[in-house]
Amino acid sequence: MNPHLFAQVLSASGVAMAIRDKNLRPIFANQAFTGFYGYSLAEIVGGRAEDILPGKTQSLLDQTVRPMVRAGQSWEGEYAIRTASGRLCPVWGRFDPVLDDAGRLTHVISIMRDASASLRLRNALTQSERHLHFLTENTRDCLFRLRVADRRFDYISPAVQSITGYSPQEFYEIPGLFDRLMPGEWAGVFDLWWREMLDGVCRDEYEFPLIHKDGSLRWINQRVTLDREADGTATALEGILSDITRRHEAQEMLAVAQKSLNFISSSTSDIFFRMAIPEGTYDYLSPSVEKFSGYPLAEYQAQPLFVRELIHPDWHDYFRKTWAELCRGVVRSEYVFQFIHKSGEVRWARQRVVMHKDTQGNPIAIEGMASDATEYMHTVEALRKSEARFRALFEDSPISLWEEDLTRLKAHFDTLKARGVTDFRAHFSAHPEDLARCAALVDVVAVNKATLQLLRAESRGDLLGNLDKVLTESSMNAFTEEMIVLASGGHEYCGEITHRTLDGQIIWVMVHFSVPPEHRQTLSRVIVSLLDVTPRKRAEQALMESEGRYRALVENAQEGVAVIQGQSILFINDAMTHVFGYARQELQALNPLQLIHPDDMPGIREQVAIHLGGRKAVAFAPFRVVTGDGGIKWVTLSIKPIMWNGQQAHLEILADVTGHKLLEEELRAAHAEVENRVRLRTAELSEANTRLMAEAEERRLAQERILSLTQQLIHAQENERQRIARDLHDKVAQDLSSIVLNMETLFDGCAWVDEVLRQRGEAVTEVVRGAIAAVREIAYGLRPPALDQLGLLLALENHCAETARRTGLEVRFQAVGMDDVPLSFDAEINLYRMVQEALNNTARHARASRVAVRMVKSHPELLVRIEDNGQGFDVDRRMAEALAENRMGLRSMEERARLVCGVMEIQSRVGTGTRIVFKIPLDTLKRSA
């Protein structure tokens, strides 16, 4: 071929082609080839190979392509080149060797084309393959391909195991496994579907059951497509299997529910309906409407808003207003109105509806239920009358009745439950202050007249204003139990407690509270009754004491006791057997008269006859009896008629007085001597008693003088503190302030002042300022002005805050019920000093991080409690050390408590913190006139 013509052919070709030498270096290249690189042929040949061919491509040419073409073989494949722009470009290339007649390589012809699109396509296919693999591995649906010819699976995804219980490998290895899972009654249906698919008919979906490997029945949804040959012959099925067991069960339940709803709507007297708005036509109306109103269903369907014709004339305005609201999309929670039945009877109806709106929010329909409320409204009216009767009975009941509203208390219980409180007994035990809060949340709505009479109150306000005087310790215990019952979901409590009437008398009452069923969700009404059981309790107590004394007397008496009914001995105590010397069974077998001495028998028989004839108690003179061993004893006998097991009997008490008879004379002789000694001893005791009374009176007067002197001393101390504080503030502090002012203006007017001198002046000024602050702090400690200006509570609150600021302690102050407690000046200063000293001790010695100060009015006392979480101490040892070392801190607090007739209690152990409690009678704290 003409070389020039060949070159023209290459140049005209749109395929990048080049003729290369044996070493694959281009000798000739067409424009498509050089354009691909962006270089001329000379630049390609003369340039550096690494600038044009990446290292991997160069290695491919050297190690693979060159050996193959030298061996006379062609090579094709992909590799990368670097264009003039520096971009790596993937290409597909082919290298064909040109051999001479001797079979030697002379040239190589290469062609190449851009492989970027092919690479992107392969990458996309690879990514799609990964996505498909991920979906098939992770979806709950099963993907499969089934060959029609042999019904074997080309592919089935792992999800088949969760659907059938069998692994994909089992489906690959066992032909027709899927057919075996089909229930027998479905075999014909499945064969029909298979024949349809072989004929080229494929349904959109198939639903059928299959038996899982574990024996359970599963429902499957299958969607398939047929893969056909060019002639239309079905070759394979490709599809998706989904487990729809739950959906199928839900559909079955829905069908059952629909049947139930249809049954209810056709059987109930209530009406179910759906009405279009604003047309007023019914999309659905249950047949019970005819029973409800007397009008057939057809009349409602024929006339829009037919219900309007039924409305009672008095309710026409109500209907127009509510219908206008519904047309605007406004729904009320309930509609109650009167309508006229076809029979002419006026009835009540109740209706509840829900609104349906379109996507723009416009109302399109309402669905609801209407019911005959005639009986309900009659019941409401009856309840109203019943409430009136209840009020009358409540007010005039002879039993004390309280009506309480515990709505706020219920909210508090709900808050505690939301915080995790479940054991309310433990909660109230750990937080007794919460009981006071619960008491404050109880709203007493009403009390009746019997309550005022029971508790000796003049009026309801008088009673409610003095409830703290009514409650006793057992009352508070019962209140605690009531709170535990209510908080734990209970609705009733009954118990016996004591109350204190407003005139101070203690009474026993049976308290019973109950929550009516209709108020148990809100506790908005609780009825509490108090029944006065004081007479019964006193009688029970007396009876208990009497029974105890009688039992002890009979069982332990030295006298013999017997109960005789007719001629039978029903009861004998041990003492009776000791008197006669017979066993209990022997005595019960004998006639009592057989035991009397023959000489005394006539008189005893006569007295017994008198007793039996008159049924009166008889006491016998001493007489003799014969014992079991033949001995003689003197006894006295008393007989009293009693009832025993509902029948008449008599009680015999026999006392052995044999020793008395022998000692009678000795006693007479000794009596005179004893009387004389008694007179002498009485005189001595009277004289000693007189001396003791005089000494006690002297000690009482001395104690009063000591107390008076202590009060005067504290008065003088407080007055002196006030005077010193005033002098420190008004004089010393003012003078020091003047010094500061003079020091600040010392160098005014001086043109030049030495810097050292100025710094010394400023240092002196700072020292004086510190002295002013110290003087004011001392003055405040001596006599806090807040006590006079703000009162005790605010003064203590300020002092707690100042202590917290000064020491870094967390100090909390709380006062409960103190608003109406009048305090004298002495009481205020003593209470303030007690708390002040306790906080000082805590700050100095306790090593605490937290301290709480509480003042609580708890009738009849004021309680002041200072409690810290410090290291604690041994109370007995510390008090002994304070006494031995003359420490005044604890003794000062104790003395101040004694001055206001109170007591101080210290509760502490090493490592558990310290609690100091002052208990002060409220009567001693009242302000003097």
TrEMBL record:
Entry GO terms, CC: plasma membrane
GO molecular function, one term: protein dimerization activity
Localization, UniProt: Cell membrane
InterPro entries reported for this sequence: HATPase_C_sf, HATPase_dom, PAC, PAS, PAS-assoc_C, PAS-like_dom_sf, PAS_fold_3, Sensor_HK_TwoCompSys
PROSITE patterns per the UniProt record, alphabetical: PAC, PAS
All residue ranges annotated as the PAS domain in the record: 2-72, 128-183, 279-334, 565-615
Pfam families: HATPase_c, HisKA_3, PAS_3, PAS_9
Keyword line: Cell membrane, Coiled coil, Kinase, Membrane, Transferase, Transmembrane, Transmembrane helix, Two-component regulatory system
Membrane topology label: Multi-pass membrane protein
Coiled coil region boundaries: 685-719
Domain PAC: 75-127, 204-256, 333-385, 493-545, 619-669
Record's protein name: PAS sensor protein
Organism of this sequence: Pseudodesulfovibrio aespoeensis (strain ATCC 700646 / DSM 10631 / Aspo-2)
